[in-house]
Amino acid sequence: MAAAAEVVEVQLRCTPITADVITDTEHRVIVGVGAARSMKTQTGVVWAFRQWMLRGGEGTIAWFLGPELDRAFVLVEKFCNGEGDNPPVCPPILVRSFPRNKDAHDPTIEMIDGTKIMVKHMGSSGRNLTARGIVFGLATEMATAGSAMNFVRLRGRTVQSKGQIYLDAVPEPHNWVRTAILDAAIAEAEEIKEAIAAGVPANEATYRVVQLSQAVNVWVDEKESAAFARDLYRIDPRMAAREAGGEWVDDRDIWMPMFDPAIHTFDPLHLDPLEFLGLEDATGQASLRWFVEPKTHIVGADINARPHTALIAKIAVRKGERMNVPRLWRLVVLDVLQVYGKDSREAAGILSEYRGDAYKGAGVVIDSSSTNERHNAGGALNQRLNMTPLEAYRRAGFETRGPMRSSDPSKYTNPSRYDGSIVCRDIFRANRIHIDRRFCQPFIYALRNQMAEGDGVVAEKLENTVQDRKVAAFTDVLRYMAWPFFSMTPAQEQNSEIAVQVFG
Predict the structure, then answer these.
(1) pTM of this prediction exceeds 0.70
(2) N or C: which end of the chain has fewer CB within 10 A?
(3) Tens digit of pLDDT for each residue in 212-228?
(4) What are the backbone dihedrals phi and psi of residue 111, each rounded to the nearest 5 degrees, phi first?
(5) Residue 154 is part of which domain span?
(6) CB within 8 A of 492, min separation 6: which ones?
């Protein structure tokens, strides 16, 4: 007679947030980005145990990985021995054998069903990650791994088995994990969103990136966690955000350090935004500084096929103030629009119809390269039009200009990035900008995440990256939009001869 099977009770140590990650069987690449003691590694080990229950069996192979072997053995400790008062994730009865230290002759965990979990270090550029296919892979401390090739090789080992991998990483600045995985996940989400909007079949999502902070770890004392965050904040707020909050925070200066959401953003609670702020609309008057006809809205636009980016704003003054005095003007950013995969004619049409035609006929300030004859702004999609973006927006009914005149009055040019950055900083410093939180979250995200170049003043620009599309595009547009109306010196702002007209 066969022996009766023994039932083994397994308790998985997790929280509601991490439980959702542990039970994810859809995404091929799962990344736990987290702070110290945020359960990012523990979550991965529990995930690996569940993967074994789902996919293990005689002859199957899985991997536990670390940049060096001693860090890979942290996974073995959690899986087989436990940590402190915490029991092992895998009940000992389910393990036939496991390596006791990193010097073991055969660093392999053999499970009761014959599954072999090989414990490996990644080596240089993933050269140690060659073997037959694996059913799952768990890798820790990826932020300190040598290169993206470690991820490439690991991902390649799971293709035939349709397996999954889980990576954990501290959000270190200037690290390949951010560019090769986080940016790839963002780009994938964009592609799926575009496909759905276009009504075509979308690819299944490959990536899932979850940010974990100490706050999700219910086994860390709240007071101790708060004290740790305060200690780090005294050293460097960015360090506190990264090491306690699990946020991607660069070591360089933020481009707009004076941006304060409590001061510069607002939610009008379904009221008219200007009425809520105690302002009067001066857009019609102020727009005549740069446009021939008075406008109801000013739009700043950056022309690219991926994407066209626009900020929509009004210029206002406090109630009772004179509308033709530029030093009293305030910029009220009301809305944003990003259009992907469209030529300039299509993007201009979408802008004209956006929000029930609210912005039809606005004054549009575009980057000067998009006004130049034969310039390839917008790429191949615009080439087929045989027209410049300037012409496309004008044909859609927008009076359109570059941000400033060049030495040739018939042509436009952009202000230098340095000068444009200074103007933007000035309006933030003087609290002359207000941003509607309801519709401008992408712009707010850009302000929070825009790094400065080495001079600490000029906004960083990384061409053809997710950072360019999600962050730099909005800060470029802000520079273009602000320049014609806020670049005047104090003497110019007081000068009665400024080309500002009274009408109405």
Answers:
(1) no
(2) N
(3) 888 778 788 888 888 98
(4) -85, 165
(5) 16-211
(6) 326, 498
